[in-house]
Amino acid sequence: MTATQNMTVALAGNPNAGKTSVFNRLTGGRQHVGNWPGVTVEKKEGYYEYGGGAFDVVDLPGTYAIGAYSSDEAVARDFILSGEADVVVNVVDGSNLERNLYLTTQLLEMGANVVVALNMYDVAENKFYLDLGRLSKLLDAPVIPTVATTGRGIDELKAAVPAAASERRADRRPIRINYGHEIEPHLAKVTAALMEVGGLAPSLSRRWLALKLLEGDEKIKALVSEIAGGAAVADDASAAAAHLKSIIGDDATVAVADYRYGFIAGLIRDVVRLRGPSPTRLTASDKIDKVVTNPFVGIPIFLLAAFGLFELAFKLAAPIVAAFQAALGWLGAAARTATAPSLLTSFVVDGVVGGVGSVLAFVPNIFLLFLAIAVLEDTGYMARVAFILDEFMHKLSLHGRSFIPLMLGFGCNVPAVMATRTLETRRERMITLMVVPLMSCSARLPIYALFGGAFFARDRGLVIWSLYVLGIALAVGAAKIFSITLFPGESAHFVMELPPYRMPTLRGALLHAWERTREFIKRAGGIILAASVLLWGLANLPPGVAYASRDSVLGKLGAAIAPALRPAGFGEWQPAVALVAGVMAKEAVVSTLGVLYAAGEKGLTNVLRTAFTPLSAYAFMVMSLIYIPCAATIAVIRRETGSWRWTLFAAGYTIILGWLMATLVYQGGRLLGLA
Amino acid sequence: MPEIKSLLEFDVGTTVRVVKIDAGRGLKQRLLALGLVPGADIYLLAKGYGPVKVCFNSSRIALGRGVAAKILARAVAEDACAGCDKSESCPVD
User: Which domain holds residue B33?
Assistant: First the structure.
């Protein structure tokens, strides 16, 4: 690190240790989200200044350990091994020392330059006396007490970082845990052998490497074998590992973990004294859980909460959206009066400004949805939801956590697809992602409301409900099929921490929601705008045609597609055009129909009654439910999967399925004499 | 010596001691990192239709039934795992 370069700080720690809060406190709003190359793991980076210096912060994924058994752990480990970080701030949950220190010992053994942020210190203080000085000495690393939610200790943490970096000495020896009389001799031998291997980076602790080799770590084995003379050492280590297994009766890795915890237990005995009587077995959180995770009570509670969430998000967002649209409408009208009517004016006003309006219409809803999810997640409630639903999800080869993206999908598919990145395995991510488009988003509701109202009056509630159920049923079926055919493999094991319930921090939730919304605007905004302009183009060309008339390119396109829709009962150019418009945004279907039939809101119902029958109307609704995700969703699917192949598949299967189902409904209905 | 059973077979409210984890490396590492080493004590908080809720290492963890079935343990004499804090010398150790 030169004087002109920024110092790089990596943040590592358990999930639920408050790492994100520390990150937020350090960086304020100066953060952005990206991707670790090659994996679909989120990379959060930020920046802060302190004491005349500049610091880049990299928030590593939350992990319980640094092995190589999940992409999260691999990413964290690779980053630390790369030496790019000058300092690693290990955020430790002070009220849960025993487990959190497991990662700490691993970081220290790797030879990383660690500063321990003992977070949630307020909780820890109430529970016990902590001899911080002694802890720091035993770990050979600075220990800074912090309460990230209030900001306490953050300044001290900022001060400790450059101090730790400058104190780094090449001869500094990482902590030594004694691994017992079976392992230690082998460990010493392999360590000595590794010291002879010339090409290894000096920053890599030989003892740690030796330990990994004895544990059978494939990646380290490959890394060592690549270097001249390393392969022999690696092979010897493998032989030693096999020998150990026969003596111990289990993988060496189990014994290693055991000794590590032994070390930690000894450390804690030395450093911690319980304050007051032992806490009771059942905490308040446990009592709440008894109600919340009870399947009979918990599921209704959840449905109520979910319903309330969506209601709130949309009710709050509605006036903001209306305000945006009014403002844009005013802008459009002003532009039109100021200039002579022309194709260019129309392009700018109807195409571009209209397109921007479409994007902005999403934003308040998206933001509030993300905010609500973040708040729920923060309280710890989401973990309980995953818990309740896991058994059911398991039948679909999914994790309980998959439910969150699917639930989000009912609001909007775009954040739902984005939410799949929190799922642990690629398999779960893909299956969930592929099935999200079948969750009937809020943009489809106006279509149901229109046709439902026009054709089913009294029964429209039932009809609309049936569509949602159909979507869910198809999703279940599709998930099952995909899990067997496209993404075969083992279901991920369900192991999940249930953190104690706690009050959410609004600040953190707001930052999170804003970050996601910004990402939405970046990714989807451009697509929606482009699609909107494209649609405008198709509707207004060739020049001189009436907007979206039969003679426009769009109209001709609709007419070309129409015959294919005849088996489904709506083989006219107008429904076809509306469906094409729906690709840009599902809500466009209704407005486009209005334009095509040259009818306002009230007139449209009457016109529809002449153009459709109840059966064909239902078929059309089924088609709208299923066919192709909207352009924005396609864009984020591309982003999350990283492949055009899967994106095209998602688009393709939904169109085909939509057509099939609509046709089935229509023809089946005709056979039953319902036409 | 109380018999060795899988975690799934014990009643709610018992404290059991881990004997072995009968699983592949990935799952084993995962559980080890959380503190499930041979000799660790687990307290069964809830068991129903879905995942099992347990307490160990001062944390509440949910384990899928498949996972719980792979953890082999034996009952500990009495509910000796008071507080789970291990901040004083534990009588069970």
Answer: 4-75
Residues 6 or more apart in contact with residue A409 via CB below 8 angstroms = A416, A436, A437, A439, A441
- The residue to which tokens 């159909």 are assigned: A470
Cβ-based contacts of A278 with chain B (< 8 Å): 82-83, 85
The residues spanned by each domain of chain A are 7-167, 180-250, 280-395, 418-489+547-675
Tell me, what's the ipTM? 0.79
Structural domain contains residue B45: yes
Least confident window among A52-66, A204-218, A251-265, A357-371? A357-371
pTM equals: 0.79
A99 pLDDT exceeds 80? yes
Assess contact for A106 and A175: CB atoms under 8 A: no
> What CATH number has the domain bearing residue B68?
2.30.30.90
∠ Cα A450 A452 A458 (to 5°):
130
d(CA A130, CA A633): 50
User: Chain A contact for B58, CB < 8 A?
Assistant: yes
Q: Of B34, B40, B64, which is closest to A390 when you measure between CB atoms?
A: B64
pLDDT of A473 above 60:
yes
> Cβ contacts of residue A154 below 8 Å, gap of 6+?
A22, A25, A26, A146, A148
Instruction: Look up residue A539 and give its amino acid.
Output: A
Tokens of A643: 């492949």
Beta carbons of A475 and A433 less than 8 angstroms apart = no
> Assign residue A548 a region: left if phi > 0, alpha if psi is -120 to 50, beta otherwise?
left
Task: With respect to residue B90, please indicate whether it lies within any of the assigned structural domains.
Answer: no
For residue A230, give every residue at least 6 positions away whose Cβ sits within 8 Å of its Cβ, in sequence order, or none: A197, A199, A200, A224
Tell me which architecture the domain covering A7-167 has in CATH. 3-Layer(aba) Sandwich (3.40)
> Per-residue pLDDT for B80 more than 80?
no
Three-state SS string over A95-143 comes to HHHHHHHHHHHHHHHHCCCEEEEEECHHHHHHHEEECHHHHHHHHCCCE
Residues of B in contact with A94 (CB under 8 A): none
Q: Residue A409 and residue A258: Cα distance in Å, rounded?
A: 43
* Token pair recorded at residue A427: 């398999």
Is B30's Cβ below 8 Å from some Cβ in A? Answer: yes
CA dihedral A198, A201, A202, A203 (to 10 degrees): -160
**A346 to A3, A332, A335, A337, A590: CA distances (angstroms):** 55, 9, 10, 12, 21
* Residue of B55, B85, B90, B93 best to disrupt the A interface, most CBs of A under 10 A: B85
Whether A494 sits inside 8 A of B63 (CB atoms) is yes
Residue contact B82–A278, C-beta within 8 A = yes
Average pLDDT (A405-418) is 87
Q: d(Cα A366, Cα A321) in Å, to the nearest integer? A: 11
Average pLDDT, rounded, for chain A: 84
- Over the stretch A544-589, which tens digit does the pLDDT of each residue have? 777 777 888 888 888 898 998 988 888 888 899 899 989 888 888 8
Cβ neighbours around A241 below 10 Å, total = 21
Return the number of other C-beta atoms located less than 10 Å from residue A166's C-beta: 11
Asked if residue B37 is part of any domain, the answer here is yes
Omega before A542 within 30 of 0, i.e. cis: yes
Total structural domains in chain B? 1
A274 vs A95, A124, A127, A270, A372, CA distance in Å?
A: 11, 10, 6, 12, 37
Using CA atoms, how far apart are residues A505 and A513, in angstroms rounded to an integer? 12
Instruction: Decide if B49 is inside a domain.
Output: yes
Residue A286 token pair: 């446990």
